[in-house]
Amino acid sequence: MIEFSRYIPFGQYVNNGSRIANLDPRTKLVGALLLVAAISYISRVPAFLLCLAFCLLLQQMSRISLLYVLRSLRPFAILLLFALVFEVLFYVPNNATPLLWHWWVLSISWEGIFLSLLGLARVIFLYYLVAMLTFTTSLVDLTDGLEVLLAPLQKIGIPTNAFVMVLVIAFKFVPIFVGELERLMKAQAARGMRFGEGNLVQRVAKLASLLVPLFASAFKRVKTLSVALEARCFGGSKGWQRSKRRLLQFQRVDIFSLVLTTVVVVALVAINLISPW
Amino acid sequence: MSEASESIGNTSETASGEPAPAPTPAKQVGPWRLTTERIVITGVLAAITIVLGVVPNIGFIPLPNAVGNATIEHIPTILGGVTGGPIVGIISGLIFGLVSFFRATVPFFKDPTVAILPRLFIGLTSWAVFAGLKRVNRVLAAGVAGFVGAATNTVLVVGALIVRGYFPAQVIIPTVALQAVFEAIIAAIITIVLAQTFFVLENRLVRAPETKKREELPY
Amino acid sequence: MIELTNVTFNYSAQGEEGIPPALHDVNLRIREGELVAIIGHNGSGKSTLTRLVAAILHPQRGSILVDGLNAAAGEENLWAVRQRVGVVFQNPDDQLIASTVIDEIAFGPENLTLPRQEIEERVREALALLELEPYAQMALSELSISLKQRVAIAGVLAMRPRYLLLDEPTAMVSGHTARQLLRTLSRLARSQGIAVIHITHFMHEITSFERVIVMDAGRVLMDGAPAEIFARVAELQAVGLDVPMVTHLGRRLFAQGWTRAPEVVLAPSQLLGQAFDPAAETAELAPPDFSRGQREFAEAPANQGIETQTTSDERALFVLKDLVYTHQRDTPFAQPALQGLTLALPARRFIALVGPGGSGKSTLVDLLAGLLRPHGGTLLFDGADTGVASFKLERLRARVGVVFQSPELQIFEETVGKDVSFGPRQKKVPLAESRRLVQESLEAVGLSYEDYRTRYTYALSGGQKRRVAIAGVLALQPEVIIFDEPMAGLDPRGRAELFKLLQTLKQRDNLTIIYATGSLKDVIELADSIHVLERGRLAFSGAPRDMLRRAEALHSLDIALPEAAQIALSLRASLPALRTDVVDLEELVSAFHQAQNAEASSGEMLDSPLSARVREEP
Ligand SMILES: Nc1ncnc2c1ncn2[C@@H]1O[C@H](COP(=O)(O)OP(=O)(O)OP(=O)(O)O)[C@@H](O)[C@H]1O
Ligand SMILES: Nc1ncnc2c1ncn2[C@@H]1O[C@H](COP(=O)(O)OP(=O)(O)OP(=O)(O)O)[C@@H](O)[C@H]1O
Ligand SMILES: [Mg+2]
Ligand SMILES: [Mg+2]
Asked: What is the pTM of this model?
C-alpha cells in the first residue's frame, strides 16, 4: 500500500549508547572518509578480507543488530543483482582470457565474474560504512561535525557554513516531503487514480501531477521558512557565521579510534600493493 | 538594508507583474550572492532530491526499452539553477551527486569523479541557458534549460565513465543514447511545468488563461 | 514602544491598480508589557503587520520605530530590531529548524554569535519559562503539535525579545492545551514585561486581554478594551467576525430584562453579577466542576448498549472488528495507531469520530477509504471482507470519497476546474457530463462555476481550498463522504459557511457522512451518533446529547466541549440547577431561564425580575 516512510533507511539513528555512538562525530566522519577512500582503492582479495574483519569489529562495537542493518539493504538487493549481471556481461576481458560465452559486445568470462564479485563486495562495504555512520550518529552531530571539519574552507571564501545549513534544512524536510508524497498519492488514489499503468506520455503526466504539488508546497515553505529564519536573526553576521551551544570535544577514545582506523587503512593499502592476487 | 531582506523585498517587487519578469530573484541581488532565501531553496530542493533518490519507484519513469528507466532525479538540480541561480544550482548538484554516490549499487558510481563531479555542472548550465533565453520566452527558456540540464548530466557522466576507463566509448554510447534523449525530453517537459508553477506562485497569479474551447474541456 | 505612523504597505511595489495595499495608513502604539490581541478576517493584513514590525518587510510609506530604532535606517538597526521583536508563526513545522528541543532553542542565540556560556544561560531560561525542561533532549519529530508550539515560543524567547508576536498560534491546538498557551502568554506579559501581540480567529480566547485591535482590509477598524470592542456586535459581524458566545448570551438575557449582568459580558461569572477579573481569567484554569453534573444525570447507559447493538447490525455499511494498524511496522520506529477497534457504522447517517490528537482518527479514515489495508482484525464494507486478497480496494475507493485533514495536499491540479474534474476524468466520463458534474459540485459548495473554473488552486484562501476539495469529492458522486478535521484553520465566517454546507449535505438521501474531529463543537449539532476514540480503541459511543453528560471523561481526553456546554459548566458552581447538556445558544438561554426559575421557586435566590418575566411568556 501507500506507505513510504517504512522504506526510508534515512537518518534512522539508533541511540543505544554504544562505543561507536558515543564517539565524536568528527572522528566518525574522518574515519568513514578514510575507509571509503581505501575501499574505493583496494582490489585484492586479502585486502577485502581485512576490510571484512574490521567491519565485523565495527558491527560488534556498535551493538546494532546485523539483521536490521542488512534489512535496510533489501530494497537494493534486486538492483545489486541486476548490476552484477550487467557488469559480468559488459566486462571487456583482455585477449588472453578464455570466454565462456559471448555475443556482440556481451560476454561471460571467469575473470569478469571474479572482478564483478569483487566490485559487488566493494559496493556492499561502502554501503555498510555509510549505513553504520547514519545508524550511530544523529543528523545534528553529523552536521555539527561537518561544520567544524569544513571550517578551514570557510577561510578561503567557500561558504561552508551556508552549505551546512542547506544540509540541516534538507534533513529537516526529507521526512516532511515523504509524508506529503504519501498524502498526495493517497489523495489521488482516493479519487480514482491508478498508478503504474498507462503509456509513456500518461506516465509522465502522472509523475508531473505528483511533482507539481510537491514542488508547489516546497516553494511555499521556502517563503515561510526564510521569513522565520530571518526573524531569528539568521544571516545577521558575516559569512553566515554562527556560534555553537554544543561543544565537540575529542576524548582519548577518539584519538585511539582515529589511530586504529589509520593503521587499518595503511594496512589495506599495503596489502593491496603486496598481494599477488 | 541587508542582502537578506533585500531578497525578500525584491522578489515581491518581481511579483508586481511586469509582462514577463524572470521568476528568479537573481537579477536584483546578483546571481552569485547567497541570501537566506537561496539557502532555504537549496535545502528544500536537496530534500526533494533525497526523497526522489530513496523512495522506491518515484525517481524514475520506466521506459519501454531494454536499458531501463529514465531518471528524473536531476530535476530538482535543474530547478535550482532556474529558480535560484548558479550558486543554488551548484550546491544542489553537489547534493544530488552525494545522494547518488551513497546510494549507488554499481561500483563505477561509487567513484566520486563519476557520481559527484559531473553533477556540479547541471545547475550551472541550466541557469546559464535560462538566464540567456528568459528574455525571449520564459516557457522556451525553461524547456531548453531542462533539456540542457539533463543532457549535461548524461554527457558528463558518460564522459567520466569513459575517461575513468569503466566502459569503452563504443559500448556505452549506443547503450545510453536513446535513454538520454528520452530523459532530456522528459526533463524539458517537467521543467516547463514546474517553472511555470514557480512563476504562478511567485507572481501570485489568480487565473489561468483559457487555452482550449470550453467544449473540448472536461470542466 | 512600537510606534507605527501612517504605515502603508503594498506587496506590489509599483502600486499597480486593482491591488489595494495590504496595509493602509496604519497608526498604532504598543507599549512593553501590554497584552494585545489582533483579530480580523482572512486577508485583512494581520500577518503583513507582523512581518513589518519584525522588520522582514519595510513600509513604503510611513515609519515604524521599535524602541526608537528604525529598521530601514541601516544594517545595525535591522538586526537590533529583529532581536527585540520575536515572531511565532502559525504552523510550528514551518519555523522549527533543528532536530532536538534544546538545539532549536539555541538556534537564535547561535545566530547572534553569542559565547557558549551565554547561550546555555538563555536556553535554560527559555526552557524554564515554558516548562519544557523534561523535553529538552527530545527530538522535535516526537513531540505533539502543542509542544512544538511551545518550543517555537521558547526559541523566540531565547533571543530575549521585548515584543512577542504570535500569528495564530492556537489555530492548530485545541482544548486545554490552547488555554494553557494563553495562560503562558499572559504570564510573559505580566511577569516578564514583554509585550505580547496575539493574532487569532477565536474570540473567546481574548476576553481577558487588555486591548483588542480589529483589522479590516488593511486598516485598523477598532482599537480598545475587549468590553468596548465586543459591544459593537453588528459592526464586527459586518466584517466577518463575531463576539464570544458568552457575550451573545449576555445580550440575549439583557434584552430580556436580566439586570444582574453588564451589557457586555466577557466571562460566565459576570452573568451572575460577579465582577470581571481578567487576571483571574487567564492566571488560573479552574478545573470544571463535574461532580454535581454526574450526580443528576445518571451515567449514560448508552455505552455498552449502542456498541453491541450496532456491531451486531449486519446491515451496517462498515463493520470493524478488532481492527489493528501499525505505522512503520517491523521497524524500530513502529507506532501503533489502531489497536483492536470494534465499531459498526450504519449507512445514510451522519457519524462523528471524535478523539484527541494521535488517537488514530486519520489512520481509521485511510482504512475506511481503502487507502490502507488493516494489519489485523476485519473490515467489512457492505458485507464484503476487504482484507481478502481478492477484494479490489478500487471498489471501495469508487464508492467512498475523502476530504483529508490538510486541503493543501488534497488539491493537486493547477486549476480548480482541472482538480474538480479529476475524478470524472479518471472514470472517463464524457466531456459534457464531466462539465455538468464540475458545475454541479462547485455550485453545491457555494463557488461560482464561471468564476472559479480557471482559477489557480494556489491562489485560494484556506476556506476556498476546503470547498474545492469537497467539490472534487462530490464530483465523484460517492455514497460515503469522509471528512477529516475540515474546520481547522478557518476564520469564523469560513466555519459558519462550511457548517451550512454540511447541513445541506446531510439532507441528501443516500449519503453517508463520516466526520473525524478533535472537538465536539463541530459535530454536536450535526451528528446522529458519536464515537469517541482513545489510543486506537473505542472509548465510548452515544448520541450527541449523551456526550455532553460525559464531560469529565471528555475533559480527561482533552476533547473540547461545545462553547455552550462549557459556559453552562462554568456557571454551574453558582447555579446548581443549570442543565449542562446544552447544544447551542438557544438551548443555553432556555436552560438558564429554567435554572433561574428553579432557584427562584426553591427560594434559595432573591426574586429575579427575569424569571418572573419568563414565567409569563408562553
Ligand atoms: N507574500 C505576499 N505577496 C503578495 N501579496 C500578499 C502576500 N502575503 C499576503 N498578501 C496579500 O496581502 C493581504 C493581507 O494578507 P495577510 O496575510 O496579511 O492577511 P491575514 O490577515 O494574515 O490573513 P489570514 O487570517 O488569512 O492569515 C491579502 O490580500 C493577501 O492576499
Ligand atoms: N506516517 C506515520 N508514520 C508513523 N507514525 C504515524 C504515521 N501516521 C500516524 N502515525 C502515528 O499513529 C498514531 C495515530 O495517528 P493518527 O494520525 O491516525 O491520529 P489522529 O487521531 O488523526 O491525530 P490528529 O488529531 O493529530 O490528526 C499517532 O501516534 C501517530 O503519531
Ligand atoms: Mg495571516
Ligand atoms: Mg488526524
From this structure: 0.86
